[in-house]
Amino acid sequence: MGNGRAPLFALGRIVMTQGVDALVQAGVIDPPLLYVLLHVVGDWSEMSFEDRRHNLQAVLDEDRIVSAFQVTDAVKIYVITEGDRSVTTLLLPSEY
Q: What are the strands of the beta sheet with 65-70, ordered from one edge?
């Protein structure tokens, strides 16, 4: 997975919202799974120090893990894995 790093947690089922799906269909987000791979190996470089620290603790505590990625100047997406690790969702900030 991403840069030879091992996954830090289970992803569960991977889903995307209608907003993300529309951007995938339009070729704006390509490939969407790249962001899931960055998320699961802990590449949270676009997040604040506090958010990265929270994610590291959430991995240990089985809490919700949230990543944010700036896809283009105008498009940002979130990748969220639920605490029970049943589902990982790609969504737009407006769909949060």
A: 13-16, 87-91, 76-81, 65-70
Phi, psi of 78 (to 5 degrees): -110, 150
* Mean pLDDT taken over the chain: 95
Task: Please work out, in degrees rounded to the nearest 5, the angle formed at the alpha carbon of residue 30 by the alpha carbons of 27 and 40.
Answer: 150
- Whether the pTM exceeds 0.90: the reply is yes
Question: Could you tell me the residue ranges of all domains in the chain?
Answer: 16-95
The C-alpha atoms of residue 9 and residue 81 are separated, in whole angstroms, by: 9
Is it the case that residue 2 has pLDDT exceeding 70? no
Give the whole-angstrom CA distance, residue 76 versus residue 94: 10
